[in-house]
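Title: Request for sanity check on Desmoglein-2-like prediction

Description:
We are preparing a figure and want to confirm that the structure record we downloaded matches what your pipeline produces today. Could someone re-run it with the sequence below and paste the raw structure tokens into this thread? We only need the token string, no images.
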Amino acid sequence: IRSDEETRTDIEYSLIGPEVGKLFSVNKVTGFVRIHGILDREKTATYELKGRATSKRNGDPVENDLNLKIIVLDQNDNAPEFKLQMIGSVDELSDKDTHVIAISAFDADEQDTLFSKIAYKVIQQEPAGERMFRIERSSGEIKVNLNTLDRETQATYKLIITATDLDGGYPVSENIPNTGTGTVTINIRDVNDNVPVLVKESYEGSVEENIMNVEVIRIKAVDKDLIYTENWEAVFSIISGNEAGHFSIITDPKTNEGILVVEKKLDFEEFNEVKLIVVVNNKSPYHKSVVIEKPITYPIRIKVVNVPEAPHFNPAVKVISISEDRTTIDLKKVITTYTATDSDTLLTATNVRYVKGEDVDDWLSINEKTGEIRLKKYPDRESRFLIVGTYYTKILCITNETTVILRSQEDLWPGSYTVELDVLDQQGKSCQGQKLQVIVCKCTEGQVCQPLRKRSTSTPPSLGASGVLALLLGILLLLFIPMLLLLCECGEAAAMAKFQPFPFDINQGLLTYHTEGQGEDKQLKVLSKPPVNDSIRNPGYEGGYREGFGEEPGEGSWKNVWSWEEIRRMLEKRNTKIIIGGHSELIASRTIDSMALSDKYLYSYFAE
């Protein structure tokens, strides 16, 4: 910077503005402005400074300040950058040159110069193979390169893109091209280019007659298009066999199955089989690439299952014309027969009975077996029960096929019980309670009901002549016993001489406590009768077999089988082996100290 006043007076130069003293300085004498650092145009493209000339003598400005603008010249020192996430999408089977996405990179160098002019290029495609996309060199617009995109084969592509400044060209003077790299993701949108098909070529199902709004069968469709979209969702149509409108098909949106539903009741007597023809399409229209010359058809065979049907009256209302002239009426004569028809055979119903459901003035009677109707009283034209000159009654036809199973809720003693039942129909209506006599009996081992043995209570017991004689003999015997005692020797000597002790140790059945207090509870072993065909064998008794334990005294009982001598020999051995059903056990001599009757024996006794 120079001032014209320097020829007339001594002058000093100075700078005013940002970065003065740091980045910029001026020689006070010569006015030369110097730079003391590296400038970055992308940070500060220009600097606004002022040059000032002052008198050395008094420091006053010798003239106005000089505006000094410093412009930083650009160098190609920045590479292009992709700053946004680049995701595009395009329909499968799109035509060539279809627009996908336009991308752009930013170069921080001076705009509208060669340093910021960018050229784009696709350098890599994932997955590799035919190059499905191309990019416009200058604009960065990506387009479809081939019209064979198929989402079912490849749903996503990734492109590696380069952006190079200097228009992608060669170095200019000292500046060389800079390149930035970015990734573009391209998603392939689905179109309806696949026709749905069923997993089977034909189907069979069955349904009972006289029902509706029930699922009969499911037919699953398979479609390669994007799941849970209208391109994938199947639409089923019945094109044959459903002229009467008995069926409809709805689609399960989760499984893509067609659900065949009964809309109208079927009658087995009308037809026992239905043959349907079904076609399947999609909810959305097909793509232009799909050409269907003849649709695929699928036969469905539905068997109608016959079920027992209630009989019905035909006609449902029967009209009988009768004069009220009593001279023409015979109350014993059948005025009409009204029978029901078997809905399965269309013949007169059998195994049914007829009853009146409604007869407000009790005019009629009906034979429950034949359905013959007679008058019970003479008709009265002026009766208050007539409606527009007509008397109405309702006849019911009841099938005889109701069964019931009774099960006891607790253990019952054998005997006769009265059970009252209420029988209701499906409408909740019932007749008067029915009473049943139920016999509870004891079953034998062969699961046969054992008849109850009744004790006679009609004739009181009587004592005959033989009974009186036995009673007198008993009294005489009691008188004779004291006389026998007079002949016996008494005292210890007599006892030692006449009574011999057992030669072995035994346990008494009565226990001596020597106290007046309550005795102890004693656990008694139950000796039960062995199972049928099982016996108790005592090896000490010469291999013989004996039955008993818990039975009434009699043939084969323990009391009558073993003598005291046999018992003595058994107990001398201390331990006795018994065999029951092939299983042997050792029984000590104390085992038979105390015996009790089994529960089975007691139950049998008290049940009689």
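Thanks, this matches our download. The two ends are 145 Å apart (CA to CA).
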